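Exam revision sheet. Question 4 asks you to relate a sequence to its structure. Input first:
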Amino acid sequence: MANLIVKRANDQRDGEFDFIAPELIIAEIGNAAWKKRSRNEIDVVSAIFVVRHAPLVFASLVSIIDLAEDAMRLSATLLHPIYDCFYLVLAEREGAPIVSADARLHAAAKRVPTIATRKL
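Answer key, structure tokens:
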């Protein structure tokens, strides 16, 4: 599972940029691994492997504390959950595209004209 996600992400990256994300992404990746484990699609060892190696995909993980005020401001403006807005604020701040398979995140990003998106 982890290798497939990394491959799909790297295919999108195409050497243009390094991946950065709010630290929140580790919890989200862990939750995805938990869901796969709860459906018996992976074992516990694989789920732990995913969480252990997830940070290695990113050149930088940014503290959500540093993004919180702007994320809340954007969340209130878009009337969209703050979880996604951490990613949007970071993308806008860094001038980086959102690279995700999350359709809801892409829809929110389209409402911010300064953010580009790439689907996984």
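Marking note for examiners. The longest strand covers residues 20-22.
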